[in-house]
Amino acid sequence: xxxxxxxxxxxxxxxxxxxxxxxxxxxxxxxxxxxxxxxxxxxxxxxxxxxxxxxxxxxxxxxxxxxxxxxxxxxxxxxxxxxxxxxxxxxxxxxxxxxxxxxxxxxxxxxxxxxxxxxxxxxxxxxxxxxxxxxxxxxxxxxxxxxxxxxxxxxxxxxxxxxxxxxxxxxxxxxxxxxxxxxxxxxxxxxxxxxxxxxxxxxxxxxxxxxxxxxxxxxxxxxxxxxxxxxxxxxxxxxxxxxxxxxxxxxxxxxxxxxxxxxxxxxxxxxxxxxxxxxxxxxxxxxxxxxxxxxxxxxxxxxxxxxxxxxxxxxxxxxxxxxxx
Length: 325
Ligand code: CP
Known about the structure:
CATH superfamily of the largest domain: Aspartate/ornithine carbamoyltransferase
Distance between the termini: 52 Å
Order of helices and strands: HEHEHEHEHEHEEHEHHEHH
CATH architecture of the largest domain: 3-Layer(aba) Sandwich
Bound molecules: phosphoric acid mono(formamide)ester
């Protein structure tokens, strides 16, 4: 009788000392610093037109995206390809998930094809943790329900570092639907570990219960909240995760919590305006602010590719790029 197919371990030793990237809650400050260091090294290489390490040459990254995505999915794909790798993308639509296959069975099925790393976006909080425990390859959480979105927070930190020169001591205000935002949660953990002071502002129904226990200052009114902040990060309301009646109407929300030029009159003149996207123009942010001189929304998108290159490079055992040691 033939032996069962042996699936070799696809977990190389790496200098981050972790198998998978599941959330910023589980990263230490020095690991965040290392990812940012490599991100800026890659940025320098790309900006100067120098070749980047082909760490993923001969390697395959699986992209399992069971929720819609533009930025995260395409930037992981670009990042893997810039490092010389192949990608295989699967979504819920058109895969055997529609025939009732479970996530674990789908993941085990793709693992049997010998990929090197798996990136997962899924509506269920905790799903990347189940895959990490089940699979013998690194897993990256690309957003799990309203739980975490670690690479978004890392690219946000990179963007703040790029434009403010530091993170430590900065006052960062996160505005909007904090309760359902994986971006807010990952940013709160990461910013605090890097010495940032985080405040949140939103309608009471869109703030998590006992949010102050996360070590954040809580505001319900925008005018006072924006006053002394270095960074304002505004969020989309996650209408797809809300119960009926849980949120104000779009018009009402915009009136009280929309970031407009009029609101910014009370803010510092050099405040950085951020948004993870996708943007609902005229709801959480006015078009003139989204496209204005203080907005770094498209810089966040560009940095998303670079941070994901750094994460893929490090998790697959990449070292410092030659010539930059
Ligand atoms: N910020 C973010 O996760 O965007 P996408 O949903 O387009 O990936």
